[in-house]
Amino acid sequence: MAPSATDILPEASSASNKGLTLSKQTSHYVDLWSKHVAVESAQDHIITDVDGKKYIDFISQFAVMNFGYSHPKIVKAAAEQIQKMPLVGTAYISPLYAKFAERITTASPGLCSQLQSSV
């Protein structure tokens, strides 16, 4: 059986360890980093923790709101790229990056003529 979130991060069970105090005025405020979630898996917009609890991911990081986790087309494209070359930093140039840079600069005429990246 997988460990629970509190086994992985014991402080996750105690908000007082983080110095969090919510008054009535802030009871509806969500501190995105106040609770540690030990993620087991994610599909579409649902994250499942190691205890089986499900969360709707509404934070919109890494394009989740647009595509969801494990979108079949994105998984396929990522797998194909990883088979070619898993990581291309700025020390190398790749045809895919050159095409991306051309598309960005073409889509923004007058705003930028070159693209610099740091990975």
TrEMBL record:
Family the UniProt entry places it in: Belongs to the class-III pyridoxal-phosphate-dependent aminotransferase family.
Keyword set includes Transferase: yes
Pfam families: Aminotran_3
UniProt keywords, alphabetically: Aminotransferase, Pyridoxal phosphate, Transferase
Keyword DNA-binding applies: no
Identification of the protein by name: Ornithine aminotransferase
GO molecular function: identical protein binding; pyridoxal phosphate binding; transaminase activity
Lineage: Eukaryota, Fungi, Dikarya, Ascomycota, Pezizomycotina
Superkingdom, natural source: Eukaryota
